[in-house]
Amino acid sequence: MTSRPCLAVTMGDPAGIGPLVTVAALHALPELLSSHRVVVVGCHPTLEGAAARLGLTWNATLADPASPIAIDAGELGLIEPPGASAEAHEPGVPTLRGGALQVAAIDIAAALVMDHRADAIVTGPVSKIAITRAGVPFSGHTEHLARAAGVSSDAVTMMFAGPKLKIALTTTHLPIRDVSGAVSVDRLLGTIRRVAEALFVWWGISRPRVVVLGLNPHAGEEGLIGDEETTVIAPAVDRARELIPNAAISGPVPSEVGLRRALEGAYDAVIAHYHDQATIPSKLIEMGRAVNVTLGLPFIRTSVDHGVAYDAAMSGVVDSGSMAAALMLAASLTLQVVAGREQRGG
């Protein structure tokens, strides 16, 4: 019963579309409940209400977060964080209670993977504001999970992986005024290495092609519009070429050039430097099909490529494609991990 890999799924903000897309995606993937143990960390009444709004049913077996997750094939597990109310949360109405529930769910899922009772985390969309107002400073899943795993926030990388475009970030959730100072040679080099390794190991690309975008307009115009390209980005690319000889690493190139050529198939992954430089092209091109993947953690974590969308939560009209893609990518990666473990004899 415990030989199948286990996915811990957090439903996200109970007032947002997380409960709806979680229920819808799991309902659309019955085969996942046969190949994997799936346990949702969230509020039963809210998930049950989401299912009713979608015209679906919600059946889940309570699981003990302190014990091995034992779920029969075809069944779905549920862990309710402490303080989860017997009353459903109102769609579109964020609360302090909902903020506390969101971060508690993330912490439970992190404990499951760190204790090897789960093999991956799949996260629904959260509200940073609601969590922070509930008393937990929170800049994002990526940074929070890095702290939970005892990893520096500089040592993890956010990547949006879609059918047409894989784009990673040197920095994550920073004010734009702080980006230049945060893009260092060491930080960018680490990002390049993590992206190349993911392409090698997870996507099976024997010689990955990675392009590093410029930070400034037109990649700095040889120093006319900023010098980060010559003082930071080019040295990091040169060093990466030395350290990763079986990858083809290009850059810095102007953002519009690198992204266009990636879409034409010239590169396997793109490295951007700040949040919107990556998320705008990803969401314009592949909204609802891309998966947010965290590289550098000691466990697998995937997520949706969208936010809480309170307006959609109120209307009940949602697209669960990104959650389904996040679940399937996590499932595929966990099977790779299990196969590798078996090949190593343990």
List keywords for this structure.
Isopropylmalate Dehydrogenase; 13 helices; 12-stranded mixed sheet; 346 residues; 15% strand; alpha/beta
Notes on the protein architecture:
The protein is an alpha/beta fold and 346 residues long. It has two domains: 1-151 and 297-346, Isopropylmalate Dehydrogenase, CATH 3.40.718; 154-294, Isopropylmalate Dehydrogenase. It contains 13 helices and twelve strands. It has helices at residues 18-28, 32-35, 44-53, 96-114, 128-133, 141-148, 176-182, 185-201, 228-243, 255-263, 275-286, 310-315, 321-343, and strands at 6-10, 37-41, 61-62, 77-79, 120-123, 157-161, 166-169, 209-213, 248-253, 269-272, 291-295, 300-303. The protein has a twelve-stranded mixed β-sheet, with helices on both faces. Helix 9 (228-243) links the parallel strand 8 (209-213) and strand 9 (248-253). Helix 1 packs across helix 3 and helix 1 packs across helix 13. The longest helix is centred in the last third of the chain and has 23 residues, at 321-343. The radius of gyration is 20 Å and the shape is globular. The mean pLDDT is 93.
